[in-house]
Amino acid sequence: MDLVWGGKTQTNVSYTILQNIVSLGANVKRVLAMVNQRQGYRLKLNIPQEALNIYDTWRATTGWTYILANYIPSADGQPQWELYPAPTFQQSFPFLVYIQPPDMVQDGDFPAAFIRSDVIMYGAIPHVLRFRGKNSRFYDPQTAMVYEAMFQSELQAMSRNDDNQYPKDLLYDFARYPFTQYGASYWQSHDADAGFL
Q: 138: domain range?
């Protein structure tokens, strides 16, 4: 129920139940891109709820979804988004997201593809060399310090390389265009920059 009071009783009136609040998974940290496969355009991302409330407070608009708006987390803490307008028929939304790789806990766990395994070894070897203290035949604090220094050095190098590979967001700037769902077919025959600069 949306209202705190009941309306007039009505019979033979159609209604629609829509699912426009979605979760893409607990490990999703940020949506990088999402497209409406059926219409062939990219959805606008990171639109706050306040903006949707200005344009459509009651969410009366339905149909072809063109916005993925930020929404509050679910009860179990998963991030959620609102599809706007709410889809009233089957639509496909392929997406690209940044996820948080799971922690390595079990023996069979492996690092994410972009993390160098030799750097992980540099971080683990000092622990092995100090395990059980002086009673261990492998105890070697000097060598442990060398591997710790190598680990810190390679970790910083990986961080610098990551920053160099993606210095700024190079995605096309959709924010300067009007609040519409126009797709590629529309912009092929219209001057997108006319009047919006």
A: 117-165
